Each structure stands twice: as C-alpha cells, then as structure tokens.
Amino acid sequence: MRRILLCCVAVLVCLTAAGCCNRTELDELGITAATGFDRDGDDWEMTYQVIVPSASGASQGGGSAGGGSQPSVYVFTTKGKTIREAADLGYTENPRRLYFGHTEILVIGKGAAETGIEQILDVYFRNIDARETVLVAVTDGKASEILRKMVPPEKIPGTALAELLRKQDNNSSYFPVVNVFEIAQKLVSDAQTVGVPEIIVTDGDGKALESLDVNKTTSPPVKMKVERLGVLHLNRLVGYLNRDESYGIAWLTNQVKGSTISFSCSGADANSKNGTLRITSAKTKVTPVRAEEQHYNMRVETEASGNLLMEFMCQEDLSKPDSIRAIEKAAAEEIMKKIQMGWGASQKLRVDLPGFADKIHRKDPKAWKKLKNNWSEELSRIELDIHVKVKLERHGLIKKSFDTLLNQNSGQE
User: Which of 23, 209, 235, 260 could lock onto 218 through a cystine, CB 3.0 to 4.6 A?
Assistant: First the structure.
C-alpha cells in the first residue's frame, strides 16, 4: 500500500513539475514580413522587415491604443560571415526573437544572386521556423534598399510586395511567381534553371509624399514594380528576360492563368494593336519529338479560350463566323510570337528555362545520358513546332465596334 501511495505522489510531482519551461510569449517575438539577402565582399548582409504589432493594430481601426503615426514595420540590417551568424548578431540591436513563420517574401540582391544562393536554400530547409512556400524575388540592386521602401497605401510593405507578385501572376501572367521549394526543385532537376521575378524601385528620390493639388491628393515618390525575369542557372543569376520574353516562357511552361492578348485587325499594320482578348483559360503541352540521330525537337500544343470584353476597334462584324475565326487566328499568331520570343531568349542565355531536359529524360532515359554532357550546345539545335488554337467564347454586347457604328451613321447623313 505504501508503495502505491509513493508511486501516486511521484506521478503528481511529475505532473505539477511539467510545464512550459521553454515557452516564448507573443510579446517576445519579432514577426518578420520580409527578409533580404545581400553580399558585402565575403560577408552576408541580412535585412529584416519586422512588424510593429501596436502600430499595425491601430492602423486597422483599433482605436488610438496603438502607435498613432508610428511606422507599422521597422527594418534593420546585420552582417556576418554566414547567414546564421548575421542573424544571431541581430540580437545585439533587436530585443525580440525573430520569427519567420509569417514571412511573405524573400528578396535577393544582385550580389548575393550572382555569388550563389545555395546557402540561402540550405538555411530555409534546415530552419523549422521558416516556410518553403515563401515567395522569392531578385533585385538588380540591394535587397536592403527594397525592404526600406514603403508601398502605399499598404501598411506592411513585405506583404504588399508578395501581393504584387501574386496579383500580376493571376491577372497578367507576365512573370510567374516562384517559392523557395520550387526554386530548389528546379535547380536540382535536369534543366537546373529557374526564373525569378525582379522587383525594382522607380522614380525614387527619398523625399516625403508631396501634395499635388489643393485637395491634397498625394502620389508616392517611389514605386515598386516587377520589371524583368531573373534567370538562375545552377545556383547563380546569369541574366534577365524582358516582359514579352518572360510571357512567352509562361505560355511555354503552362503557367498562364489570367492574361490579355492584343492583336491586329485583318489587313491592318502588324504594329497596330486594335483588338484585345481576355484569356480565361490556357493549357500548353510540350512533347519531345525525335529528329535525326539523338537530336530532339519540341512539339508545342497550346489551347486557349477568352472573351472579347475589352477594346475592339476592328471593322469585322462579330455576327459572322468568318470574323470570329479571323480574331481567333490573330490572337493565336500573337501567342506563337511570344512563345518564339521566350524560347529565343532562353537559347541566347544558353539555359533550359522551359525544362525540356526533364521531358526528354522522362521519355528517353538512354538518349538523355548521351545528351546531358553537352546539353547547353544541344539547346541551340532545338526547334519548336508550335500549334496554337484559340476559342472566342464571348464577344460582348455589340456585334460591331463603336468606331464602325459611328462611320455608318456618318455615311447615312
């Protein structure tokens, strides 16, 4: 009986002793919205954009209990021989433990991207607080400069930058977004290449907002925008694609979600774009086709559908099937041009941005063994056999352009 009582007492002591001895209170955490990576010689420069809870709460209508005019984030930069050392040195000037579970975006500066990002990826896959779904962007300057700029009217710039990438991806598809996991996955694939959106700052002079008129309408002195697609091969930045070239790669890699295609009217100048088709769905299939010896070409089959609910200043009568087919053909030709531009830019950089290597490897492993050692040279030989089919689903409320209707009424008078 005594033994039973002693056992019960021991269990009760253990239960009362067990507690959250390693707990961390919320007011001890510094929640980061964005992280920047730069290189200064052999050192890493880490920049953190940390949310100020009191200020962000007040800015969302929480009364005056918060920060008034206090900034919603604060930004600081540390330097170290390794990323971990730079992060630890942050505690010399930051009273809170950095928490990366809510980080929205990583910005990699030009110096770090050109030196190599393998250490960045290693840190993110080892850190239990970090998420591999964080979006990634590059910049032609320093990441610290990007994170120190505000993005009106949003209160948290890091979140605004991530939303900027997502919105343009969903509505225009010019620069497909990519996260940490996808970058690692593509860099270790046979193609070993990935595209990352580039963020730049335009019209920046560092001044405060200036009033434009008597009603105190303001315009931000600096603007954030997605400018190009940075191309990472192996682990380094090797070049950029402009908007049209990046858009072509998006079509070629089946990453077009919502987008807009401008086309020329029948018989009009090719540079004159008078019609706009809003793409609502798109699908691209790429199939390796065996040519002579071990050489491969690519058959590209693209299907897209859209609505003619934007501008249309052509003379065609949309009640006639021939006019519908002419519009579909014109839009298909524009898509073909963009695909060719994207592939041409990838060939010029001697990188496999569309991921053709992985497709050949899956279809013909024996052929890939012979091709992979000289893959950069083989890329210059690959030709695309492009087939695009566009379907016009809706053409709006009127059958003819308003310009045509005006001309008809003028002729009757």
Answer: 209
